[in-house]
Design a protein that fits this description.
Chain A is of the alpha/beta class and 284 residues long. Chain A has helices at 46-53, 78-84, 101-111, 116-129, 146-158, 176-193, 204-210, 228-232, 235-240, 247-257, 269-279, and strands at residues 2-12, 20-31, 35-39, 61-66, 69-70, 85-88, 164-168, 196-200, 213-218, 221-226. In chain A, α3 (101-111) packs across α4, α3 packs parallel to α5 (146-158) and α4 packs across α5. A two-stranded antiparallel sheet of chain B has the order 1-2. The chains are: A alpha/beta (284), B mainly alpha (266).
Chain lengths: 284, 266
Amino acid sequence: MSLILDKVSYKYSTGTAYEVTALDQVSLKIEDGQFIGIIGHTGSGKSTLIQHLNGLLKATEGSIYYNGQDIYDKDYDLKDLRTQVGMVFQYPEHQLFETTVFEDVKFGPKNQGLDDKEATLRAYEALRSVGFPEDYYDQSPFELSGGQKRRAAIAGVLAMKPAVLILDEPTAGLDPKGRDEILGLISDMHKKTGNTVILVSHSMEDVANYVDRIIVMNDAKVYMDGTPKEVFGRAKDLEEIGLAVPEVTYLMMELKNRGWNVDVSATTVEEGKNEILKLKGMNA
Amino acid sequence: MFREITIGQYYPAESRLHRLDPRVKLFGTLIYLISIFIANDIWGFLFLTVMLGVVIGLSKVPFSYMVKGLKGIVTLLIIAGVFNLFMTPGQTLAQLGPLTISDVGLKNAVLMTARMIFLIIGTSIMTLTTTPNQLTDGLEISLAPLTLINVPVHEIALMMSIALRFIPILVEETDKIMKAQMARGADFESGGIVKKAKAMVPLLVPLFVSAFRRASDLALAMEARCYHGGEGRTKMKPLRYEEYDKRAYVWIVLYLLVLIVIRVVF
C-alpha cells in the first residue's frame, strides 16, 4: 500500500514560447502512514508534484502507481483515486459554493456515492474534528470569517475519509493561532488514524514541528529527501537554493560558533530548549 | 484544460509585427476586415491567403498556436456552412431527398466559411502581437475624436484593457476551482445535458464570487493610487510613429488597392 512515482516529468504549454518544465524525472516512494513535508521556493514544482498524486495532472512522461496499480491505465478509475487521495488546495475556501456549510461539506461524500444519511454523518464528524463551531453549521459559507471558511473547506475534504491527505499550504494567510490549530488538528488526526499526510509548506518551523520526512524540491527536481534532522543538517545547501533552516537551528549553530557545546541538529523549539538546559547542567 | 484558449492572448516574440505601432495594427486590421468582404472570388482569396501567409511569417507566432483559436468555433462554422449550403435558392446542383444544393448555396457556403476563418486568424494576429496595454493605448488615441460627441473613450479603453487582462486570470481561476472540485469527486464530463448543467454549479458559484472579489480589489487598488479617469493623464511611454510605421501604412493602402483592382478586373 503506497504511492510510487517513477521518473515523472511534466511540461506546461508544450510546443509554445511559454513551455516550462515543472517536473523533471521525479522518482519517489511514499509509504503508508508517513507524515511528509514538501518544501521548496515558489516555482520549484511543489504544487505540480502534488497534483499528480491524485491524477489531476497527467504526467508528460513516467508512471505513477497507487497500491501497485498504474493510475494511467485505461480502466483505472481516477474518480475513485481522488476519493482515496484527498487534496486540500491553497486557499481552499475559494471552492465553497453551497447554501450552507453543512451542505458544502456533504458534497464530497455524496460524490463518493454514499447515501444521504451516511453523508450527513461524515459531514458532522468532519466538521467536529476541525473544531468548527456548531452554531454555524447552517450558515452560508460566504458569511464566515477567513479562518472558519478554511476549516469548513478542510472539513469538506476530510469528510471523504481519504487514506492519503495532501495539503497545499493550508495555513497561508492565517494568524499564528489559526495556523497552530489547523496544523495541530491535522497532526492529531494523523496520530489517531495513521493516514498518510503530505504537507506543502513555506514555513521551516511548521515542517520541523510536525513531519517525519522532508522532500526538498528545487528546479523541478527532488533536491533532498530525508528526516528533518538530515535535511536541516545541510543548512548551506538549503540556503543556496533560497530556503533556510528553522530559527532554532540557526540559534544552535550560533551558540556552537561561540564555543558552547550544543547539538546543532535541534530543529524544534522543544529540542532547542533541552539543549540549552543541558548546558546549564539541568535536565529538562 | 482551459489553458488552450488563445483568443485575445499575447504571444511574446521579437518580430517586425510586434514592434509596429498599435495604431498601425488597428488600422491594418480594419482594412483587412473590409478586404475580406471585398474579395469574392478565387483570385481575391488567393491574394488574401498569400498576404495573410506573409504576415503570419512576419509575426513569428507559430501557425499551430493561431489555429488553436479556431477550435472553439468549429461547430459554429459547420452550422453556418450547412445552412448556407442547403437553404440558399438557385440552380440545383444536387438533390438529397428534401435537401437541395444550389450553385449559389455552394458558393455562399464556401465563401462564408473561408471569410470566418480569415476573420478569426487575421484578428488574432493583432492580439497575439500586441500587448493589451499597447492595444488600448492605440485604441484610445484612434478613437479620441469621439470625445467631442461625449463618448467616454478613455473609460471604454480602460474597460477593454481590464477585460482582456482578466481573461487569463479567470481562465486560471476556473482551472483551479475545477481541480479543487474534482478532488472532491465532482464529475464535469459524464452524464446528460441536465446532469452536466447541474455539475457546473460548484464551478460557477465560486468563480463568480472570485470575479467579484477580484474586481473590488482592483477598484480599491486603483482608488488607493488616486485614479480619477483620463483627464490630464499622461503616459509613461507615449506612442510615437517611426519610419517603418509610415512604410507599413503605405503597404496597407497598397494592399487594399490591389484587392480592389482584382475585384474590378476579374
